[in-house]
Every structure is written in C-alpha cells, then in structure tokens.
User: Which sequence fits this backbone?
C-alpha cells in the first residue's frame, strides 16, 4: 500500500472513531495496519533476494 493511501485511511478511521467514541479501537487498528505493512515489506524484500539469480548463490534456496 502507498503511504498516501495509508494516511487517508487512517484519517477516515480517526473521524469515524471520534464520532463513535471508539478511540481504543482506532489505535488498535493502527497497530494492526502498521504490523501488516511491515510484514508485507519484509516478504517483498525476501522475494527480491530469492528471485535474483546472483543473490541465490548466497542463500540455500532451490
């Protein structure tokens, strides 16, 4: 996901959280979003390393 879309998503969730009084839920959803974004970035980096033929010789990947 793009950081701009993440920002827009968080602003919309924040507005809804203020009106509904669910601030704790908003904070927890923020933690989940950040965690999923970090997992996605890590998996993309692993894929890039394993897909590169020159880098494959340094990893035990078949």
Assistant:
């Amino acid at each position: 996901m793009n950081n701009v879309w993440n920002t827009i998503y968080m602003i919309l969730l924040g507005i809804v959280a203020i009106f509904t009084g669910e601030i704790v839920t908003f904070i927890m959803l923020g933690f989940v979003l950040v965690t999923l974004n970090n997992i996605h970035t890590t998996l993309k980096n692993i894929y890039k390393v394993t897909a590169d033929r020159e880098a494959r010789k340094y990893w035990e990947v078949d």
Summary: The chain is about 80% helix and 0% strand.
